[in-house]
Amino acid sequence: MIGHGPNLLFLTSQLFSRCSTRESKRQNRSIKDAENMQPWLTQCYYQFNTYRAGLQKRSLSIDANGTSMFSYCEKGTKMHGQPTVVFIHGLSSNKETWLPIVKNIPNDYHCITVDLPAHGETVGMKEEFYTIDKFVEKLKLVIFFDKMNLIEPMFIIGASMGGAVVSMFAIKYPNYVSLICLLAPPADEKYETARIKQLRQGNYEVLLPETTEQLSDMIRSLTVKPIRLPEIFLNGFLRLRLPLLEEHTNVLKSLLEHDYPYLNQRYQELNQISCPTLILWGREDQLFTVDGAHYFLKLIPKSEAIIFDDCGHFMAIDKPLEVAESIVTFLNHHCNCQVNRAYSHEI
């Protein structure tokens, strides 16, 4: 027995070691499974809210082999005499950010939310560098509007960078546009906030977070309404964003280099916009100061503005119902397409 002692001790230690290793592997697998589940749960959250908003997700191939494709969501059907309402998101955002607003728009309006190139699930349209004009051309000439047969003048709505895209689109293609709505687009340098100055100094995490802490900080700074996301969803949102981080960084750098220095000069063309324009802004916007609303009011002839109290840059989070009501009221007033409709007040 004495002679077998060390062997027994060795076998026992090996057994415990293997059990410990197996347990460690199980724990590692559990952690990995939980990490893999985070973006999946976030995707499920998007899908559920897309369904609740009355939208259906679709894709539109723009080449023969399907390698280039726009991803978009659609609600309602196109009606003669009533403009389609098209929503264009901002930098590093996606079509789903419009869901809190679109779900409050009655179902008998035809609504489309679209992922811009280099964003969301739109694929195959990468550029060496990006400009506002390139986004305009992608929407028009790379056939999204044309191939969707959206030739009757549209009501196009843009948030933040998307607002700059929409305003330039309205100048270049006035026959495609009956109305536009701009949600806090970038204005001239004198309306900069500290966050924009940080971006210009190369602190891109202000808008392009790489950690959950940075993502939480971004959300807090751009909203007034307290957001209490469970950790698993916060991680899921971040993990869905990270694969596009390099391309979003390229977009941001390109815009800061090619567009931002000349923005005021380009905006002098806004007096060419002939369609009615609605400008929406949050009074507590920490990205583009609320005085930017007056800047655009002076430049765009047929414009009006609504300023929301207790509202930051992310109006879809802070004031989704109020934004939806403003959009529909503006549309009905200018297009004579009002019918018996009721708003959904579900949050």
TrEMBL record:
One Pfam family named in its UniProt record: Abhydrolase_1
InterPro entries: AB_hydrolase_1, AB_hydrolase_fold, AB_hydrolase_sf, Epox_hydrolase-like
SUPFAM superfamilies hit by this protein: alpha/beta-Hydrolases (SSF53474)
GO CC term, one of those recorded: late endosome membrane
MF terms in GO: monoacylglycerol lipase activity
Chain coiled-coil ranges: none
Entry EC number(s): 3.1.1.23
Domain AB hydrolase-1 stretches: 83-320
Catalytic reaction(s) noted: 1-dodecanoylglycerol + H2O = dodecanoate + glycerol + H(+); Hydrolyzes glycerol monoesters of long-chain fatty acids
Enzyme class: hydrolase
Membrane topology classification: Single-pass type II membrane protein
BP GO annotations: acylglycerol catabolic process
Alphabetized Gene3D superfamilies for the sequence: alpha/beta hydrolase
Purpose: Lipase that preferentially hydrolysis medium-chain saturated monoacylglycerols including 2-arachidonoylglycerol. Through 2-arachidonoylglycerol degradation may regulate endocannabinoid signaling pathways. Also has a lysophosphatidyl lipase activity with a preference for lysophosphatidylglycerol among other lysophospholipids. Also able to degrade bis(monoacylglycero)phosphate (BMP) and constitutes the major enzyme for BMP catabolism.
Listed name of the protein: acylglycerol lipase
Species of provenance: Rotaria socialis
